[in-house]
Write a structure and sequence with these properties.
The protein is of the alpha/beta class. The protein has 20 helices and 21 strands. It has 3 domains: 120 residues, Beta-Lactamase; 168 residues, Reverse transcriptase/Diguanylate cyclase domain (Alpha-Beta Plaits); 227 residues, EAL domain (TIM Barrel). Strand 4 and strand 5 form a beta hairpin. InterPro entries: Biofilm_reg_signaling, EAL_dom, EAL_sf, GGDEF_dom, Nucleotide_cyclase, Rev_trsase/Diguanyl_cyclase.
Length: 547
């Protein structure tokens, strides 16, 4: 019998390292493997990691003050309750009077029962993402394992795994701080909760990556769910000071067929890996894309890594320009053209034009591309006999590029008539994120005599509010506005009034991505001034002999 047996609670004597030197019968009954003396087990082998760390902190406090009461539930390595509190007392032990610690665990049944609700909450919190309230990585892997087991025994039908990676999320953190970034993540999480509902699972994998699991009967329905999620995210907006942020993301779908999974060596890791690769394909295409991948262990998704843009990989000589006509809706005459960046044919397999631009922006090389584009356009229109104008969309990096400003100032001061034939475009998304920078640039090029335009205009209030001060010549409507309003009379009326308000301010309106006669007719009913798109005219190599 140990001297510690006179103590009514579970008690143990441990050294500074947490090794059990002696235990009483109550403690031994709970931990028969604890032992004692030279063969004693360490507390780190008996307690959960968090409880072990709490004991370490308590022992340090007891070293300084001789005694420490530690409140709060302590758990064993299996997550079961040991005690609701712990008393730690420093004592001298052995002939050398080495420091040891007497541990007394409070263990009344009543107290443990009182803590049962708290323990259940702890277990639930272990599976919840602290920031967003979604399931966390641990819960995701556990649920995916469960789904695979149910599919193998025939209880579950086909399952779709949605991997969402936000586009340009880093800019929110960089421009507005991590608090704004956290708020945006919570807004995205709310979108996932709304789309996936209570009978499916939405999880935050970490950072700006999310995963959704849902039983769906067909691949077409999985695609519809992904599109629904993107549509919800497009309506998100976050105001931070003078900045306004929107967000979207690329979604990779890994579709798991029940009859295939029943025989395949599928596990959460390789399933998420394939969904992630499908997502990366969308990132490589420029973002805001949905890509589909049926689960197949034998087939890898090819070339899905986003291309790394480096000047030595794709030089300016590898680039070419195309022009897409912009027509007046009233007369169908060509007013101007939008200049588009393309790769020369031998380089087309490297990446798509959209991926080229996205990769160049990520690597900070886009402003150099913009300078080259402007130089080429100014060279071409300086010898052109036509009176049409040419629109060039500029990246955020170009707006702060002093070399680009010097180029414009130098070229247009020597040939001032060229300015009126140049329309410089800034996307609404960039304006929302850095309004002061965009306004300074628009003012600069307007003073040079250039036309100006807000591209992909979706009617966000911070831009509407400043239209009177911006004094832009054109706004190009976001193509999504057509889908938004064409089938809804009230929304069509709102859009018509917004276009009328732009006209009242002297701003003309262009419809983009017009691909069929009904779309053209729809925009005509709203009194839009001009249109561009494949129905109006396809992009052609430029410049050519038809200058």
């Amino acid at each position: 019998m140990s001297l510690l047996d006179v103590l009514p609670e579970r008690s143990a004597l441990v050294n500074r390292d947490g090794r059990c030197l002696a235990v009483n019968s109550h403690f031994a009954k709970r931990f028969p493997e604890a032992g004692g003396g030279a063969d004693g087990r360490y507390l780190s082998e008996l307690l959960s990691h968090e409880s072990w760390k709490r004991w370490q902190r308590a022992s340090l406090a007891a070293t300084a003050s001789a005694h420490m009461d530690l409140q709060g539930v302590l758990l064993d390595r299996s997550g079961h309750v040991i005690a609701p509190a712990l008393s730690v007392t420093r004592v001298a032990f052995g002939t050398a009077s080495e420091d040891a610690f007497l541990l007394r665990f409070a263990d009344t049944e009543e107290t443990v029962q009182d803590q049962s609700v708290e323990i259940e909450e702890i277990r639930q919190l272990a599976h919840i993402d602290d920031l967003t309230g979604l399931a966390n990585r641990r819960a995701l892997f556990k649920e995916l394992d469960r789904c695979i087991d149910l599919m193998r025994d025939g209880t579950y039908d086909d399952l779709a795994v949605f991997y969402l990676d936000l586009d340009d999320f880093k800019k929110v953190n960089d421009l507005a701080g991590h608090a704004a970034g956290d708020e945006m993540l919570c807004l995205v999480a709310n979108c996932l909760k709304a789309v996936f509902g209570e009978n499916s699972l939405a999880a935050r994998l970490g950072g700006d990556e999310f995963v959704g699991l849902m039983q769906v009967p067909t691949e077409a329905e999985a695609l519809e769910i992904a599109n629904r999620l993107q549509a919800r995210m497009k309506r998100l907006g976050l105001k931070s000071g003078s900045r306004f942020f929107t967000i979207n993301g690329s979604i990779g779908i890994c579709y798991l067929k029940q009859d295939f999974i029943a025989q395949a060596r599928a596990n959460p890791i390789n399933i998420l890996h394939q969904a992630d690769k499908a997502c990366l394909r969308g990132k490589a295409e420029g973002g805001s894309a949905v890509n589909f991948q049926a689960f197949d262990l034998e087939e890898e998704v090819c070339s899905l890594e986003a291309p790394a843009w480096q000047p030595e990989d794709l030089l300016m000589k590898d680039l070419s320009l195309h022009a897409m006509p912009i027509i007046a809706l009233a007369s169908k005459a060509i007013l101007g053209s939008e200049i588009l960046l393309r790769l020369k044919r031998e380089k087309e397999l490297v990446c798509t034009p959209r991926a080229l631009i996205a990769s160049a922006e990520r690597s900070g090389f886009m402003s150099q591309v913009d300078r080259w584009t402007l130089d080429q356009v100014l060279d071409a229109i300086s010898i052109s006999q036509q009176r049409r104008w040419f629109a060039v969309n500029l990246s955020m990096g170009a707006l702060a590029d002093d070399y680009l400003k010097d180029l414009l100032r130098s070229r247009l001061s020597s040939e001032p008539l060229l300015a009126g034939r140049l329309c410089l475009e800034i996307s609404e998304k960039d304006y929302l994120r850095q309004p002061d920078l965009c306004e300074d640039f628009l003012r600069f090029v307007s003073e040079l005599g250039c036309q100006t335009s807000i591209d992909d205009f979706a009617g966000h209030w911070p831009v509407l509010e400043r239209l009177t001060e911006l004094k832009v010549d054109w706004i190009k409507l976001d193509p999504a506005l057509s889908t938004f309003a064409s089938a809804r009379d009230r929304k069509r009326m709102i859009l018509k009034r917004m276009i009328a308000a732009a006209h009242d301010l002297g701003i003309r309106v262009i419809a983009k991505n017009v691909e069929a006669e009904p779309e053209l007719a729809f925009w005509q009913t709203l009194n839009v001034d001009a249109a561009q798109g494949f129905y109006v005219g396809s992009p052609e190599p430029w410049p050519d002999s038809d200058l």
